[in-house]
Design brief:
3 helices, binds iron/sulfur cluster
Amino acid sequence: MMRIHGYYDIDVVNGPGTRCTLFVAGCEHRCRGCYNPRTWRTDTGTPFTLQMEEQLIADLNDTRVPRQGLSLSGGDPLHPHNVPHIRRLVRRVRRDCPGKDIWLWTGYELAELSAAQRVILDAIDVLIDGRFVEAEKDARLQWRGSRNQKIWWLRQPPPAEDIAPPGLRFSD
Ligand code: SF4
């Protein structure tokens, strides 16, 4: 079972617009200066139950407070322990929450993802990749903590002020 360290049903900080945000347990990167080392172990936090999943789906579809989408953070949603659970979750959000986008933060770099991790990319819109590097820290960056991290616009165009050439687009 996947475990989590937090769930915000209404969040305007972690990604664009109003979102639901899930912070999962488990991260093997151990970045110096990590903002949340208590999330490193996969056996910390609380179980992500089916009941929580149903609530998350209902929140995403709640028309009283329209959500733009789901943000998956941690910890690391692409930690091998989390991969099967996240794969199932993102597929379900795709199926049951039409029009909602999915952003995912990982400490791995896109180029080093395994085949199992890459399958998840098929169902998300935006990936922010890379470890947090203290020497590259920059508080002015949007959605990222350090300059080495990249935003990969897999299925969603970048905002107008952040246009990158077509193809393998990313922001740095
Ligand atoms: S990838 Fe994120 S959660 Fe994991 S150690 Fe680095 S900063 Fe912490």
